[in-house]
Design a protein that fits this description.
The structure is a single chain. This protein is of the alpha+beta class and about 350 residues long. The longest helix has 14 residues. The strands form five sheets. Strands 9, 10, 11, 12, 13, 14 and 15 form a seven-stranded mixed β-sheet that branches. The chain has a two-stranded antiparallel ribbon with strand order 1-2. A two-stranded parallel sheet has the order 3-8.
Amino acid sequence: MISRWGLFISILNSLLDIPVSYDVCSSSLLCHQRDYCRPAGVDSIAQYMVTNRTALFRMLHKKCRQQFYPRTNNTVTRLKVPDDKVPWQVVWEEYKPAMYTAPHINGQPWADLDIEDKMFHPKWNEVDGNINRRSYTDVYSIVDKYPLNPMGRTGLRGRGILGRWGPNHAADPVVTRWKRGESHEMELNSDTKKPVLQFVAIQRRDTGEWAIPGGMVDPGEVVTSTLKREFMEEALNVLESNDVEKENSRAMIDKFFDGGEEVYRGYVDDHRNTDNAWMETVAMNFHDESGTSVGSFPLCAGDDAVNVRWMDISKDLSLYASHNDFIARIVAKHNAHW
């Protein structure tokens, strides 16, 4: 499980761009691919949040504190949450946000029952049958039956348009290749003199934003299966392919996706998040070094995507949710242009 300090340090590095010093952790295996656990001289996350809350929450929960909740035609409004009031540790007795769960969720086989339903007996912070209710961040609190967003207030209670109370798990495959010229040589950026990395980007049907292909982990499904399924559905459009095309795509993806590397596992600043339901994801990088496997495969948008293309990576990208942060990690890993 990713440590809470690993998650907070990731947020500080990728979102806040403020200097932080680190202590080396003797149990670094507890941290997700990190050698540190906490800022030097700090004993608890609560302490750090209280003493540094303005900087920490200046951009944290930025997308899930926007005024209107998505897919409601601007009819559902979030209560405005100032940066310093995001942490649950900060007392805010006047905090009484609206409750909203999209009507179309009720009765769906992929969704939880209403939390007040007498038939609903979730096992919070556990694997509940074939539903994973554990968070990648840490154990989350349950207050008056409701799970609390581990990253703080969002200005809205309920589930919104998410299917599960608590964590909703997704998987995001980041497929990359080097940008190459007509002679197949790697192209270098004229300013940084570093090679330009490209990734498979899809344009989401719901928001119009460009994003990494990805989707929800089905009950009982392992993350690796989700990664393959979502990439094939959204970037290769296998749902509308014939049997031969499906088999060719599946064989190619099965082989290529064996070599992935995890780049992130944790909370996502998603516009769908609420106080009681939130998105978490596992992002993995699948890199085609030669550009001759997936890098040469024809892309075709499908399922939740309206467009798909190889997109040049730079710091000027503006992507859905926390996808910019995942891309930044991959750029650093490959020492590519940013």
